[in-house]
Amino acid sequence: MDRNPGATTPSSHFPGADRAHAPMPDFVTQRVTRFYQERYEATWGGKLIFHGRTPEATDVVLQSNDYLSIANHPDMARAITAACQPGHDVPLMSAALLLPGSPMHVMEDVLARFLGYDEGVLAQSGYLANVGLLESVVESDTPVYIDILAHKSLWDGVRNVGAPCFHFAHNDTDALRELIALHGVGVVVVDSVYSSNGSLCDLQQCALAAEEGGCLLIVDESHSLGTHGVHGEGLVASLGLQNKVHFVTASLSKAYACRAGFIACPKSMNLYIRSTSSPAIFSSTLLPTDVAAIEAAHQLVISGDARRTRLWSITRYLRDALSALGYPVGIGSEQIISFEIGTEPAVMRLRDVLENDGIFGSIFCPPATGRTRSLIRFGIHAGLTDAQIEQFLRVCKSRRDEFAPETWSGSRFLPTPHGSLHGNAA
Ligand SMILES: Cc1ncc(COP(=O)(O)O)c(C=O)c1O
């Protein structure tokens, strides 16, 4: 990502920029040059927007999606280490389609049952789970209805198929209904918790709209699997919506702290998806170490009530305190808290000040956000200490007037009308 891919660009900051390469055609050179001139130099001031200071041990780092703080749990390391000892499954470097009877399928059944579905498909990532599923169920003339804030992998899945795609305003189920009435039976695609701002989908209403319109419903639970529901089973299961939601997908790189994706599906769909989606056919499957990590993570998730309780008490405390200070965090309600300031230069300045004060979030900017809706995203996690939480709030309080959050783009958006639905939060 941070290498100049060749051609003549205005940037000499990158090693290899002047090395001789095969000449690029103009259409590529123009794109690359535009990136360096317009974004890298003019907008970002000759720095990479994603790279600020490197955090130190005393800093408060809120950049991960390891919401339950299990990534460093010794059980994870033990499981992964054991899976690569001699005598264990030899990794078969092949597509999942060609590996019937793989131990991976046992884990698929376990996860499917956990989510309340008949079958499941493990994928190499959440991105590929979404792209693969959409390829398997959407035809090139199937209308797809998608929330404007749905994850890029869902949009890419629709685009790959070439299906007509109709987006509706974030969480606007009236608009969804109107679109279905206009364009007919198709596929509705939403996230359960939105990754940029922690807002919650009104799943009941979405499910109703999809059902009334005779549509298939896909819910991406990447940011609610493991964290939401009584034992982390996610929102669809905890709301009992499996009879209305046809497929649940999830990245297992969030609360599960692994490197994989998952599709929960009805009967007969495992074989079908595995036999018809390109990621399952044309890309090698997970390694035994990946599956071992998922198994260990699953045990930590289902026994993680205390971690979930801690996560929700921190989330609620921080959200209330930040709102009281005048920060516009009310569009979301869950464990992702965003400071949506607006432009890319503004978000870089905000990041620099926060990092200088020892607070580390992640920048989200185009194409992950709208052009004037760049933000810093804080992933709250159960491992935060009280001292770290207070450190975060102390900085937000002392810098409040300087930051002027009432001028941020996030202030233009109203709080979500939905209540919070996480299982353990009393
Ligand atoms: C909602 C959502 N879906 C899918 C993905 C893709 O997951 P992965 O990183 O496992 O490819 C992400 C990760 O950014 C996500 O936030």
Structural summary, described in words:
By secondary structure, the protein is an alpha/beta fold. It folds into two domains: 45-68 and 305-413, Aspartate Aminotransferase, domain 1 (Alpha-Beta Complex); 74-302, Aspartate Aminotransferase, domain 2, CATH 3.40.640.10. 39% of the residues lie in helices and 12% in strands. The protein has 15 helices and twelve strands. The strands form three sheets. The chain has a seven-stranded mixed sheet with strand order 2-8-7-6-5-3-4, sandwiched between helices. Helix 2 (74-83) packs antiparallel against helix 11, helix 4 (126-137) packs parallel to helix 5 (152-161) and helix 6 (173-183) packs parallel to helix 7. The two termini are 43 Å apart. Mean pLDDT is 91; it is low at 1-11 and 416-426. Bound molecules: pyridoxal-5'-phosphate (PLP). The site of pyridoxal-5'-phosphate (PLP) has 14 residues, from helix 4.
According to CATH, the fold-level topology of the largest domain is: Aspartate Aminotransferase, domain 2
| Rg from alpha-carbon coordinates | 22 Å
The CATH class of the largest domain, by name, is Alpha Beta
User: Structural class of the secondary structure composition?
Assistant: alpha/beta
Tally of DSSP β-strands: 12
**Average pLDDT across residues?**
91
Proportion in helices: 25-40%
Count the DSSP helices: 15
Largest beta-sheet characterization: 7 strands, mixed
